[in-house]
Amino acid sequence: MGINYLYPDFEVHRDKDKCINCRVCERQCANEVHAFDKELNRMIADDSKCVNCHRCVSLCPTHALKIVKTDHHFKENANWKGEVIQDIYRQAESGGVLLASMGTPKDYPVYWDKMLINASQVTNPSIDPLREPMETRTFLGQKSTKIKRDDQGRLITTTTPQLSLNIPIMFSAMSYGSISYNAHKSLAMAAQELGIFYNTGEGGLHEDFYQYGKNTIVQVASGRFGVHPGYLNAGAAIEIKMGQGAKPGIGGHLPGSKIGEDISKTRMIPEHADAISPAPHHDIYSIEDLRQLVFALKEATAYTKPIIVKVAAVHNISAIASGIARSGADIIAIDGFRGGTGAAPARTRDNVGIPIELALASVDSRLRQEGIRNNVSLVVGGSIRSSADVIKAIALGADAIYVATSALLALGCHLCRTCQNGKCNWGIATQKPELVKRLNPEVGSQRLVNLITAWEHEIKEMMGGMGINSIEALRGNRLMLRGIGLNETELQILGISHAGQ
Amino acid sequence: MKRVYVNEQWCLGCHLCEYYCAYANSGQESMVKALKDKTIRARIKVEEKDGISFAVNCRHCTEPLCVKSCIAGALTQKDGLIVIDQDKCVGCFSCIMACPYGALMPNEEGVMQKCELCTTNSHMLPVCVSGCPNKAIVFEER
Asked: Residue A277 is part of which domain span?
């Protein structure tokens, strides 16, 4: 093999006193790290193949395994860190673009963690959600700014199409192809049970999942994969994907190796042909063009479904959002730069885009200033990690939030960030049948339902603490937030005061 | 009666059920102590071929051939559950010949053992079911 420049990142530590040679680690590792040595009568491991996904650790019945970060290191250098050097070795070897997946692991500020939530004391009563009703139902879509009456003086109550959510959380777009059939089914089943929505992503809708249509958002992306009238009408809403937080400005590429019979049929492309989503929509070069697609989709669905336009959070996001709000779209979804992906160039993922917290605050403020906030609902995603993040997002002005990484974690993902290899040991980011079957949708959907239900309890608890009994009263209520350790500019963009003020 | 059923669609062939079974019936408190450096004798067995796998244990048949074949009266049916009195078993292997599922096997002492749905160990509920990582093994009424 000549010179091997890369030392394995992880070491498989096996407690020999605990290992019972059951070989479950060997059977469950798609990377073939573990093996049984008959001569030695014990398990052995090839550290260089380990991606640190913890499948073996989680299934080892005697807790004999742990994966440890190697302490092998380059000579200390604050500028030329080990990972920087290794990336150069990789590119010198391959001559290619570095690929990565899931959200950026870089140490950028997480503004959710620099905001604190208020609570009621003495002068205003807090509310106990176990004793009093607490409203989290949310409607997404255009809101009327005026009360209208007919010629008899009766209220006109018809609205443009709305999405009704029991709780303002949705599963964001992950295509069938980037994730497995069973992962999709888990999301669909959970969305139905929770009274929320999941999103097909750009890979079309598998015929088995049309039954979940009432809880499905169907996506139309630049590749237009799987888009046909039946598809558009199958969902509760249509999302036009202009961009993705993890890789703003670039398209997608699902390798032909993943395009089996089922995916080929769902995406309406030949088997084993690479599915390439162009970077732009070739028919959208302006807000006017976007408006044409919005209305083309509305025409195709007889104006019965809200249209979402999803964009990545980038530098001039508020101006872009202002344009989208005037395009006829009903909902704007903004995806922050910490959002996940099944595969993206590492440099793009780690360096392009802006944090969702700042994008959300600036868009909400801008739309209010321009008096067009009611034209659209705002949905934000890109690393919402807990119910506290949800509360903070809603207080900053979001109508609802999108989660995907959190949902995948609930399904078993351990964020090993090697989705692009297609050998996901958890049955999520893979199309290999023997791996896909590892995710039983009955188990997966229940775990998703548990997660969102737990968040719902916590959201109600925190709302009650603030003396708020309706999510509507929290929306855009930035007085409920205070910054901690933020500078003047950050506070000004977020539109919040510093803690203590 | 609730029985153990296997959905082969979800069986990963990880064999954990066998190890949990052997541990549960070992009487030991620690799995390591029970199974380290031992050849396990599980009462459930994963059958696998050509990428298909599923675990098989006693089906607790309504008309059990093993009970009919037992020459010593060691196998009996109690409320639907097929149980074995190992003190009575003479090790003639007739039940092994009779059982179409291969659900009986000799223990270390040469007398027969079989799945009794974890009613005779300290676990109360079948451990192959709770130990299955993918809900491929279920305990339910059908």
From this structure: 172-476
List all residues 6 or more positions away from B17 whose beta carbon is below 8 Å from its beta carbon: B42, B44, B46, B55, B128, B131, B132, B137
Q: So where are chain B's domains? A: 1-57+115-142, 60-114
The verdict on A71 and A185 lying in the same domain is no
Is the minimum CB–CB distance between A18 and chain B shorter than 8 Å? yes
Mean pLDDT of A147-161: 92
Query: Given CB atoms, is B10 within the 8 Å cutoff of chain A?
Result: yes
Query: In this structure, are residues B72 and B90 in contact, taking their beta carbons and an 8 Å threshold?
Result: yes
B138 touches chain A (CB under 8 A): no
Burial bucket for residue A262 (CB in 10 Å: 0-12, 13-18, 19+)? middle
Tell me the residues of chain A between 403 and 442 that have a Cβ less than 8 Å away from chain B.
433-434, 437-440, 442
Q: For the domain covering B60-114, report its CATH number.
A: 3.30.70.20
Q: Does A20 touch chain B (CB under 8 A)?
A: yes
Nearest to B10 among A18, A22, A437 (CB): A437
Is the residue at A162 inside a domain? no
pLDDT at A218: 97
CATH 3.30.70.20 fits B1-57+115-142, yes or no: yes
The CATH code of the domain that includes A324 is: 3.20.20.70
Whether B12 sits inside 8 A of A27 (CB atoms) is yes
pTM > 0.90: yes
Q: Which chain A residue has the Cα nearest residue B53?
A: A434
Is residue A298 a part of any domain in this protein?
yes
Quote the ipTM score.
0.92
Cβ-based contacts under 8 A for chains A and B: 52
Contact criterion met (CB below 8 Å) for A124 and A131 = no
Name the burial class of residue B14, with classes exposed (0-12), middle (13-18) and buried (19+) by CB atoms within 10 angstroms of its CB.
buried
Q: How do the pLDDT tens digits run along chain B, 142 residues long? A: 899 999 999 999 999 999 999 999 998 999 999 999 999 999 999 999 998 999 999 999 999 999 999 999 999 999 999 999 999 999 999 999 999 999 999 998 999 999 999 998 888 789 999 999 999 999 999 8
How many domains, chain A?
Answer: 2
